[in-house]
């Protein structure tokens, strides 16, 4: 669930970290601390817009939660102090020198590793102790919410940001690169959204110059409407496009006017929609 953010640098003072990284996000208005549970770069999706470089080998699959906790706590402590005096963070505007969130958003689907529940609990405890008030977010494709070990761990997070990039089965398979059924994602979203509000993240793109047609957007908006009609709560939908060119050269961004039109379709379905990018 790689994030598209303004600025990312692992190389200087975070390069020894196995799991925790930091980016400065203008959208979040501050330092976004990322937790990558997928150093092995494995994902159950293969989105053509993914920005994870899978041409180089990934790291180990097993997650060492003790190391993760130590990295997170070290960065939370430094964010309250000296991190802003070091490159590249010393270039950050003063008003952005704050921790905006802690987000599970790495080089694959974060709920996949068996250690996900333990990692979620550890991050929650560290956040509660060192950065109360900073939201703990999970960026996920929702494909595993039906599993007890995943669903039980969701309570550790303040916010669930769930991917929904399509309204029809063929388009879902095309833009998310998976053979999993769209209905599984929809069922899982409903399962959780009946219990607590979720944020929907929807990335739209052009493949070889062709974006989603009006029928696809209507189908996507219809899925949102169905979720709400069945008792699901959607806090808002984030409509966005690719910010940088992904490895797949067929992928390009959609124009801003098209994103606005897509957001209007979501609003027409009764859901708050915000456009980014
Ligand atoms: S869900 Fe898609 S964008 Fe996110 S890591 Fe997997 S392949 Fe990449």
Topology (SSEs and partners):
Elements: E1 7-8, E2 20-25, E3 30-35, H1 65-79, E4 99-104, H2 116-130, E5 136-140, H3 148-153, E6 159-163, H4 169-176, H5 182-193, E7 198-203, E8 205-207, H6 214-229, E9 234-240, E10 251-253, H7 256-268, E11 273-275
Parallel strand pairs: 3-4, 4-5, 5-6, 6-7, 7-9, 9-11
Antiparallel strand pairs: 1-2, 2-3, 8-10
The site of iron/sulfur cluster has 11 residues, from loops.
Please explain how this structure is put together.
By secondary structure, this protein is α/β, with parallel strands linked by helices. Helix content is 31%, strand content 19%. The protein has seven helices and eleven strands. The strands form two sheets. It has a nine-stranded mixed sheet, covered by helices on one side. Strands 8-10 form a two-stranded antiparallel ribbon. Helix 1 links the parallel strand 3 (30-35) and strand 4 (99-104). It is globular. The model is unreliable at 2-13 (pLDDT under 50). Iron/sulfur cluster binds at residues 1-2, 43, 45-47, 50, 52, 108-109, 141.
